[in-house]
Amino acid sequence: MSKEKETEIIDCLxxxxxxxxxxxxxxxxxxxxxxxxxxxxxxPVEMKISPCPKADAEAELERAQKIGAKIITYRDREYxxxxxxxxxxxxxxxxxxxxxxxxxxxxxSIVGARNATINGRKTASKIAxxxxxxxxxxxxxxxxxxxxxxxxxxMYACAQxxxxxxxxxxxxxxxxxxxxxxxxxxxxxxxxxxxEFPLGTLPQAANFPRRNRIVAGLSCGTLVVEASLxxxxxxxxxxxxxxxxxxxxxxxxxxxxxxxxPNKLIKDGAVLVESADDILETLSQTHSVQxxxxxxxxxxxxxxxxxxxxxxxxxxxxCLVDYISREGVYVDELIRTTGLxxxxxxxxxxxxxxxxxxxxxxxxxxxxxx
Length: 370
Prior knowledge:
3-stranded antiparallel β-sheet, single chain, 45% helix, 370 residues, globular, 9-stranded mixed β-sheet, alpha/beta, 14 helices
């Protein structure tokens, strides 16, 4: 890292972490004074506050480097283009994983209830899986329920190497909820974990609505799968609508409170979604040039072969759990012993994981839950 870039990050950390300075005020100060350094110099006189100490910002940068997190400022080329139009865009983002994913041109956020039904989780994971296989990046918030199912579905795609982005309401070094620690590590390996909050930031209720604007802002559109009328998922959808993005929703039974949110969105004009095809059809109309160019580019430079059509069921007389132990088995070994292809095996493993029968382990292994 050049000395100039290091100074820029430190100045940015100092200004955004100064008392009473949020993103909107941050940019107003920059617009008024021209540079971050000038804005920092003006704080004591203009706002009667002292800037965040330089030593604190330097220590934060050092901590980020130690854990392998990259800090991207609003001035960097890697800063997400979709966030730049927002007047409250984060001045900086912490990234664990692959920062190149932040600027993929086609992405969908999938959000929904934490206490989701098994059918809701399966629907979210299936749609995420199929979108990822069609080169659409899936983004969510790594919460329980729909969020987790969407991330898992995405990562089972593309020969179990599918990327996904998780936007946290904590520091990037704080997996939340704790039960998703394994998912957190897997996302870092295959995709990216991002946050605008300083390292060590613990879960706080006020931070999750702020997180939601990033989830919405990073995406071409937002899909809601199961959500009550007062849920954070509907906040994300509203933010996406305000940002001019497409809104999608999976309908459900009016007797289930978790269907009231998506059903209302559909009544208000959201695209009714039963499968990934409904989203792809809309994107082909609203982002046709991007979709065509991006898929053509990926097909020309593909490192991973296209998957074949998925198998609906296991071949006759095969019970997949009989091939999986509590100690874990490599997926490659499952392919050899069952005779299944990757495209046949992936959705079956996803089904078992969503049903709570298996868990993924490092090194592309799966194990029966003990």
